[in-house]
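Give me the fold.
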Amino acid sequence: MSDERGDAPKEEGAQEQTADKGKEKRVPTYFFPNFLLVAAMTVFCGPAALIWAPLSFAGACFAMSASIDKSDRNYEKAARNARVARILFWTNFIGLAAILLLGNYGLL
């Protein structure tokens, strides 16, 4: 709507779009945790790393894809790839913990 001075009508969404353009969304990519998990599994697990380490490597690849999408300002795709990387990280972390605990009790 125009006001009394005869100014042109303003769109409500225009201010929000300009405010969001300057901000960069924060999307954690989980690259370093996945990469460190690959290194930890190869050092501590030996042959068992052949089962779990490929999932961590896939998590690192999804994390790299998320960081590339984030740099391209495609935040929705970056969030999806980062979510997959996070799921793979926690799956592998729990697997590594189980392997180490079972190995310490002589069950593995």
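Helices lie at 12-22, 31-44, 49-71, 75-104.
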